[in-house]
Amino acid sequence: MSALERLAATIEARKAADPDSSWTAKLLAKGPEKCAEKFGEEAVEAIIEAVKGDREKLVSEAADVIFHLLVMLAARDVTLQDVATELARREGISGLAEKAARPAPR
Ligand SMILES: N=c1c2ncn([C@@H]3O[C@H](COP(=O)(O)OP(=O)(O)OP(=O)(O)O)[C@@H](O)[C@H]3O)c2ncn1[C@@H]1O[C@H](COP(=O)(O)O)[C@@H](O)[C@H]1O
């Protein structure tokens, strides 16, 4: 099992945990909207570090983003496997070709 899969399993298990015992359980107890808001905050923090160019801080903020992304997904019962399946479906499809094949905007 990868670190990402272990983290996703821990987050899933926190759905049943006491909010006083865990940050993840506390965030999940606040509902999907709050989880989404927190993800947005963490994404902005990562953007700031990416613009500044501090590699170490960017790695740390990126870890926060991935953790909070998984919490946001769990809050809506979307699994890491669901996302992996979608990524696998896209494998080999060029982003440029996919974009060109989209219907023209009306
Ligand atoms: N990867 C993480 C992880 N990354 C970040 N965080 C927490 O996310 C919280 C938010 O970070 P911030 O720096 O934004 O905190 P803050 O600004 O004080 O938050 P607010 O002001 O918004 O309240 C902090 O409490 C961090 O410790 C994490 N908490 C947990 N995990 C993983 O989840 C597992 C389960 O954790 P618990 O649910 O706490 O048992 C852990 O063993 C880790 O593997």
From TrEMBL:
Its main location: cytoplasm. It holds the Pfam family PRA-PH. Its EC number is 3.6.1.31. Pathway: Amino-acid biosynthesis; L-histidine biosynthesis; L-histidine from 5-phospho-alpha-D-ribose 1-diphosphate: step 2/9. It comes from the Bacteria. Transmembrane segments: none annotated. Coiled coil: none annotated. GO terms for molecular function: phosphoribosyl-ATP diphosphatase activity. It catalyses: 1-(5-phospho-beta-D-ribosyl)-ATP + H2O = 1-(5-phospho-beta-D-ribosyl)-5'-AMP + diphosphate + H(+). It is an enzyme of class 3 (hydrolase). Belongs to the PRA-PH family. This is Phosphoribosyl-ATP pyrophosphatase.
